[in-house]
Amino acid sequence: xxxxxxxxxxxxxxxxxxxxxxxxxxxxxxxxxxxxxxxxxxxxxxxxxxxxxxxxxxxxxxxxxxxxxxxxxxxxxxxxxxxxxxxxxxxxxxxxxxxxxxxxxxxxxxxxxxxxxxxxxxxxxxxxxxxxxxxxxxxxxxxxxxxxxxxxxxxxxxxxxxxxxxxxxxxxxxxxxxxxxxxxxxxxxxxxxxxxxxxxxxxxxxxxxxxxxxxxxxxxxxxxxxxxxxxxxxxxxxxxxxxxxxxxxxxxxxxxxxxxxxxxxxxxxxxxxxxxxxxxxxxxxxxxxxxxxxxxxxxxxxxxxxxxxxxxxxxxxxxxxxxxxxxxxxxxxxxxxxxxxxxxxxxxxxxxxxxxxxxxxxxxxxxxxxxxxxxxxxxxxxxxxxxxxxxxxxxxxxxxx
Length: 401
Ligand code: PMT
Prior knowledge:
The protein is α/β, with parallel strands linked by helices. The protein has helices at residues 21-33, 46-49, 52-59, 70-76, 78-84, 95-103, 109-116, 129-132, 135-146, 172-181, 217-228, 256-265, 309-314, 332-343, 383-400; strands at residues 10-15, 37-42, 87-93, 121-125, 150-151, 155-158, 164-168, 192-197, 202-203, 209-210, 232-237, 249-252, 272-275, 282-284, 303-305, 321-328, 347-352, 364-371, 374-382. The model has no long low-confidence stretch (mean pLDDT 93). Ligand PMT binds next to helix 11, helix 13 and strand 16.
């Protein structure tokens, strides 16, 4: 693995009770491979799944399990351990542990240590998919996120209970990568970012719709980059076939009307809004109740305007820092600047569409950024790279204003 930023870092790995605890032994191995110094702290429930001896063998260090163990406290007490850590990662983090962290309990060694440390905290939730979608768990995760805790995952797929869905602990290599990003700059820590992505679909009848070529790649890359910068991210997405970036809250919509309603409902507490979706400007004025039948050689469809979501966000009060996109086939800069002024945006990111190497569907992009008093280019580069540069640029301007 290339430089992870974890070489020589002092990491406490907290392990709570769950079947995914068996993967944490491999996680210790992976962390040590990239040069991290790892100490393991287990909850009582975790020891029911994997023995402390296993973690002692893979970490090469004594494993800490109890607040009330005088021998362990004499060797390295919990306050000393809390001071020693440069980061705390809890993997797996069970629903019970998330609840105890959210209310600030200190009823065992791991939760006490979390309260006693100044090191950044990351949790990798792992639980059954129904538990993960329970509003009580979502509320606890929200509290932790607002407190600056990095929520790594969960991923989706087959679960130990035989079900399928979101709730799997991220794979050890993925966790190592994500943990490394905690040591990089986190300029959007504690901020909330709302991003739109993908196309909208405007129905003509029960089986047909008008849409466009947006794949969602650019918007999803922005969501992952904003998350890595420390933000709590809400991703309002049209119909796309992309997995949700771990740790991002995704809200699926279909039409421009639904996207408008959903975005306006997420603006409370929103610091930054980025409109990357390719929203249909018009929709069929009427939607046929049954499938339209073939008739004359010509067919006319009466269209009416959709709400302009970006302009509505920019006109809202309080107003988030508002970033729009412009997709153009010609006069990129002229059209983008006209949109920035008309919609009263803080920043516009313009890309050419319908050409190789940028815009819809492809893996790469090139953006022209324009704000009051300046402009610059980003890329050409992969959408992931362009997204992380754009998020760094937005964070810099947002934090300055
Ligand atoms: O999804 P990909 O395949 O990765 O492609 C990425 C992209 C080309 C879709 C993306 O980079 C992009 O350019 N998104 C904006 C597409 C667009 O609709 O541009 P526009 O110039 O038509 O709209 C200008 C801005 O107003 C956009 O921020 C758009 O989200 C917003 N808008 C437009 C109409 C509307 N009714 N409401 C809006 O909010």
